[in-house]
Design a protein that fits this description.
- The chain is α+β, with helices and mostly antiparallel strands and 529 residues long.
- The chain is 32% helix and 22% strand.
- The protein contains 15 helices and 23 strands.
- Strands 3-7-2-1-8-9 form a six-stranded mixed β-sheet. Strands 10-11-14-12-13 form a five-stranded mixed β-sheet, covered by helices on one side.
- Helix 13 (415-431) packs across helix 15 (495-517) and helix 14 (466-482) runs antiparallel to helix 15 (495-517).
């Protein structure tokens, strides 16, 4: 079979007009971009609940232009002459969607009404030259044929008065609610178009004037950065027209932790609604790399860095070897007591990472001279070598506190401690599959689990009364037993922990009664002490 061409139906064009954008503010944006493409220097916009008017002093459209650019929707990229925004040649469809359109450009009147068969126009038309399309006239009031409802047609007439530019009058199909908020949103969409294109834009008599003095500029874009926020997004503008607020990742895969503005100098490859950047766009991919690099330069100089920003800077040393030298004297690191440190401060000293409030970590700092950094910084040190003596936390505990945390032989326990320990061994054996529990000694914990998964109970914690043993001691042992991994570095109450704890406590209930009445250890009758 031969190759065959696809063809588009009128229904596709209808959807392109009716469904291209979901809000009227986007249609106003398209009108302003059309004015820029027409080389306008001034645009005046009037917006109220019943109608919108957009006037510019651009080149307007001749009859030939109307036939090529107004009547036809869509061109291939190489069919379109050089324009700032006019890539798709479809944006005017958004304006058609929201109301009866009356365009006055040069000596042409163009009328589009998708919802009515007749359109009333109050303009000076040259009706003497051609009455085609005019149903009725009364002075400067004309009733024009608008085609059947939902027909994709426009009525073109000659105007007696020449308009030097283009005026678009839109009678809204539905009155607008909350005009003020729509105008505010519209201003956001066109925010940097005047600045970028040296054009004056007025909305309801007020100039849109958002001056910006970007700190960073490349051949591809302008960049500006703010401080800390909960969003850390880049507000992206395609040559001044707002696209979206986006998160930007650096080459390490981490989100760039700073608010910023990107105003592209070159056209971004966007979807039809101009709200998303097409994946693989070369311009955007270059901008992303530049954005991360400029964010680094900004944060190096920024005095009020958040912990997240400091950690991100440290992590960028993975892919930028030069950065370590730049940041080594900046206090980017925070220890568990909240003190700020630089990488240079760690030079030649022992340091590790621990959660805030960890008693052993605090003692390691006070008594052992080990700098304990907040554990949230640990992943940021993956590419930082030859700075001090980095130690794993468990190694700190083992090396610095080994004499203060150790295993105790059951034979060295007193009678009460030994019997309580035997009860715990029996209980653990009943509810688990061979988990190990041993007596120990610690200045820091009553119960702990080491890296091998063995649970230790401080010998002095075993020296307790019956009611304390049956409640507090057993409960504490079950908590540590249920923890996934060592508790030496802290306690992580994850989903796995909660599931294990609930399951173990359910098993403990019946065995606790046997401990109470002395029938533990294979059901033999034994006194508690």
């Amino acid at each position: 079979m031969p190759t065959r061409k696809f063809e588009a139906t009128e229904g596709l064009l209808h959807d392109d007009i009716r469904k291209q954008a979901g809000r009227i503010e986007k249609s106003w944006l398209e009108a302003v971009m059309n004015s820029v493409d027409a080389d306008a220097t001034e645009v005046e916009i009037e917006i109220n609940s019943t109608h919108s008017i957009i006037r510019d002093d651009g080149t307007g459209m001749s009859e030939a232009d109307i036939d090529k650019y107004f009547r036809l929707f869509g061109y291939k990229d190489d069919d379109v002459e050089e324009k700032v925004y006019g890539k798709f040649r479809r944006g005017r469809g958004q304006i058609f969607n929201y109301g009866k359109n009356i365009w006055h450009t040069q000596d042409n009147i163009l009328v589009v009404d998708l919802e009515n068969e007749q359109a009333i126009v109050e303009k000076e038309l040259d009706a003497s030259s051609d009455d085609e399309g005019i149903i009725e006239s009364d002075g400067d009031r004309f009733i024009l044929d608008a085609g059947s409802k939902n027909d994709l047609v426009f009525n073109q007439q000659k105007a007696n008065e020449y308009f030097d530019g283009t005026e678009v009058f839109v009678w809204h199909y539905d009155d607008l609610d909350d005009v003020s908020s729509k105008v505010t949103e519209f201003k956001k969409l066109i925010k940097y178009i005047p600045w970028m294109n040296d054009i004056e834009v007025q909305i309801n008599g007020n100039y849109v004037n958002y001056d910006i003095d970007p700190k960073f500029e490349t051949d591809n874009a302008y960049y500006e950065f703010g401080g800390n926020s909960m969003f850390n997004n880049a507000s992206v503008y395609n040559m001044g027209a707002f696209v979206d607020d986006m998160s930007v990742n650096s080459s390490t895969g981490d989100r760039v932790p700073v608010d910023g503005i990107v105003i592209s100098k070159k056209a971004l490859d966007l979807n039809n609604a101009r709200t998303e950047i097409i994946e693989g766009d070369d311009v955007w991919e270059t901008i992303v790399k530049e954005y991360a690099g400029n964010a680094i330069d900004f944060l190096i100089e920024y005095d009020d860095k958040s912990p997240t920003q400091s950690q991100w800077l440290l992590k960028q040393c993975e892919v930028r070897e030069w950065l370590l030298e730049e940041i080594k004297d900046i206090p980017l690191i925070e220890d568990i007591k909240g003190e700020k440190l630089s990488l240079s401060d760690l030079s030649g000293s022992k340091f590790s990472f621990a959660p805030e409030g960890n008693a052993i970590a605090e003692e390691a700092m006070e008594r052992k001279g080990v700098t304990m950094i907040k554990e949230s910084y640990e992943s940021a040190f993956s590419a930082i070598n030859n700075i001090g003596k980095k130690k794993d936390y468990t190694d700190v505990v083992r090396d610095e506190f080994s004499y203060e945390m150790k295993e105790v032989s059951p034979d060295d326990l007193s009678k009460k401690r030994s019997k309580n320990f035997e009860k715990l061994k029996w209980l653990i054996n009943e509810i688990t599959h061979g988990e190990q529990i041993k007596p120990g000694y610690s200045n820091h914990y009553n119960v702990w689990k080491d890296t091998d998964g063995t649970v230790y109970v401080d010998k002095n914690y075993l020296n307790c009364k019956k009611n304390v043993f049956l409640t507090e001691v057993i409960d504490e042992v079950i908590k540590v037993l249920s923890h996934d991994g060592s508790t030496m570095k802290g306690f992580d109450k994850s989903f796995t922990y909660r599931r294990n704890y609930e399951r173990n406590m359910n098993k403990v209930s019946s065995h606790r009664l046997r401990l109470l009445n002395g029938t533990w250890d294979s059901g033999q009758d034994r006194s508690f002490y």
